[in-house]
Automatic annotation (TrEMBL):
Keywords: Cytoplasm, GTPase activation. InterPro entries: Ig_E-set, Rho_GDI, RhoGDI_dom_sf. This is Rho GDP-dissociation inhibitor. Its main location: cytoplasm.
Length: 198
């Protein structure tokens, strides 16, 4: 199967006329328009309170922790989860690809932490290229006040089926990137389609 190395394929698609706003820290958002009740409710929904930043202001805004493939058709007790810090396991999928059942609904799920800034005006996207370009927005989040990571379930997709689909190994390039071009995670993994999960 072909590998998609074109860096342009892994950039977010912009809406014509859209310009991302200037990035602000959680503390800056907490102090912004403090008397505006609707804005205060929005900030509270993101856990924005003065002094709640959990990471160094100079570090990454977002840390992506895991990628999971979820499907209602997975056998009981089976999980397909990658710790993105475990680069050896990701690299091993080139020799030992993950087996995905053909013709089933599945979705990608990631866990991540927001460290010191609000991700809203310039939200990160998960972009992958196994078959067609999949581009989905993370949404708006602030630093977690309890230190727990967020989980984002992306829209369901359906795996291809048929003898041709089962005939090769697929290389997936995935990236979490924002409108400003800042890359928070970038990884490759491999899978094969089969008649059953294994």
């Amino acid at each position: 199967m072909s590998t998609h190395d074109d860096q342009d394929d892994l950039k977010p698609t912009f809406t014509p006329g859209y310009k991302p706003g200037a990035a602000k820290s959680a503390d800056e958002y907490a102090k912004l328009d403090a008397e505006d009740e609707s804005l205060a409710r929005w900030k509270a929904s993101l856990g924005i309170v003065p002094g709640t930043s959990t990471g160094a202001a100079g570090g990454p805004k977002v840390t992506v922790l895991t990628l999971e493939l979820a499907s209602p058709t997975l056998p009981a007790g089976k999980e397909i989860v990658f710790d993105l810090k475990d680069t050896a396991r990701l690299a091993d999928t080139k020799k030992n690809p993950i087996i995905i059942k053909e013709g089933v609904e599945y979705n990608v799920r990631i866990t991540f932490k927001v460290n010191h800034s609000i991700i809203s005006a310039s939200p990160p996207y998960l972009i992958s290229r196994p078959f067609d370009k999949m581009e989905q927005m993370l949404g708006s989040y602030g630093p977690s006040t309890d230190g727990k990571p967020y989980t984002k379930n992306f829209d369901p997709e359906e795996s291809p089926s048929g003898m041709v689909a089962r005939s090769g190994t697929y290389n997936v390039r995935s990236r979490v990137v924002d409108d400003d071009g800042e890359v928070y995670a970038d990884w490759e993994w491999y899978f094969k389609l089969a008649k059953e999960w294994s």
